[in-house]
Write a structure and sequence with these properties.
Prot_kinase_dom; Kinase-like_dom_sf; MAPK; ATP-binding; 14 helices
């Protein structure tokens, strides 16, 4: 272990929602942001001079399902930890508790990003086509890495995409990520519920066809984000499962029987689709192509025909026909960025406990050993103080 917990000095920062008990190397904690899965704060790592994100996982062992999810998230994060793959970097993992019996809190330290895409989209910041192209390329580059490990993120939404002042992209939001095997096994416990509108907007296959959902769901999500960057609002803001389908078909067109067969639609969804009036696919060039002010030859929004063609590939309704992230990186739209040598892949993720059915205490014990055995990669402790 790089930093023996017994030798760490700790301090506690009080907040109205919680306490943060962290090693003294992390100073100036603020502000605090509350999510359903964690509470996030930002701090300065005095050992390296870096600004970092600290996430306190809420109730990590409150039930068997949550204990398994906590284990799975940490296992995935450690496997995918990389210095340059568009995946949120894991700098440190710790708990202030001294023994397994009292193990109730878990902290993850990650790379800091100034913004997320949701904030950018709903700001007054001008988003040029060059920005859109770079962001989408980086997302697909990250998904190539993630998918090569056999992992489905399943929550690629604008608020989970971090972007820093140098336009570096990081993919966050790992509490629902899993392999296809684990996702299907535990789907009814933790993956989706009707109140999760963002999952519905960006990953409708999770509700339409969960049994046949695979990594292509993340590609659809990238398409939704690309469209959102263009039109500056969600593309498919469904208010319910049926309304979600209606909003999608309003743009993509109503699927025919052959497409429904290829997609292995559940019978109830297929019956609903067959009751809908036929709609043709909209003209993507009109929806997402360049827009001009009167008398101007310089576009004020939208993307080129190449960009529209890419978006059409991302938003293929039939996931069987939707390209992989690796295939999309070869799209002509990314010619200025694409370099196969500089687009990393991961080793296949192997979880020795993927078929295990354990108690809460057993999952907690396994997670405790992972925390105690975590060794930060050397690049996470790069000192930048003397470079400023």
């Amino acid at each position: 272990m790089a930093d023996n917990d017994d030798q760490r000095e700790w301090h506690t920062v009080e907040h109205s929602l919680t306490q943060f008990t962290v090693p003294k190397r992390y100073q100036n904690l603020s502000p605090f942001e509350y999510n359903s899965h964690d509470i996030v704060t930002y701090a300065t790592d005095t050992n390296t001079g870096k600004k970092v994100t600290i996430r306190k996982i809420l109730k990590p062992f409150d039930s068997v399902a949550r204990a398994h999810r906590t284990y799975r998230e940490l296992k995935l994060r450690i496997h995918l930890n990389h210095f340059d793959a568009q995946v949120a970097q894991l700098y440190d993992v710790f708990t202030p508790e001294k023994d397994l019996n009292n193990f109730e809190t878990l902290y993850l330290v990650e790379n800091y990003v100034e913004y997320d895409l949701k904030r950018v989209i709903y700001s007054n910041v001008v988003v040029t086509e060059d920005h859109i192209k770079m962001v989408i390329y980086c997302l697909l580059r990250g998904l190539k890495f993630i998918h090569s490990a056999g992992i489905i993120h399943s929550r690629i939404i604008s608020s989970n995409i971090g972007i820093d002042k140098d336009s570096n992209v990081s993919i966050f939001g790992w509490d629902s990520a899993a392999t296809a095997h684990i996702r299907r096994k535990y789907d009814e416990h933790w993956l989706y519920n009707e109140s999760d509108i963002y999952r519905r907007w960006y990953a409708p296959e999770m509700i339409i066809n969960p049994e046949h959902c695979n990594e292509k769901v993340d590609i659809w999500s990238v398409g939704c984000i690309m469209a959102e960057l263009i039109v500056r609002q969600p593309l498919f803001p469904g208010t319910s499962q049926s309304d979600q389908l209606t909003k999608i078909f309003d743009i993509t067109g109503t699927p025919d029987s052959k497409t429904l067969d290829e997609m292995n639609m559940p019978s109830v969804v297929r019956q609903y689709c067959e009751t809908l009036s036929r709609k043709s696919k909209q003209d993507y060039e009109k929806l997402f192509g360049y827009k001009y002010n009167q008398g101007s030859e310089t576009p004020v929004s939208g993307v080129s025909s190449q960009g529209v063609t890419l978006l059409d590939r991302l938003l293929l309704l039939n996931h069987c026909m939707r390209p992989t992230a690796e295939e999309l990186l070869n799209d002509p739209y990314f010619e200025m960025y694409h370099d196969p040598i500089d687009e990393p892949s991961s080793e296949l993720f192997i979880d020795e406990y993927q078929d295990a059915t354990y108690s809460t205490e057993k999952w907690k014990s396994i997670t405790w050993n992972m925390v105690k055995g975590f060794v930060p990669p050397p690049w996470t402790n790069e000192n930048i103080i003397d470079k400023s």
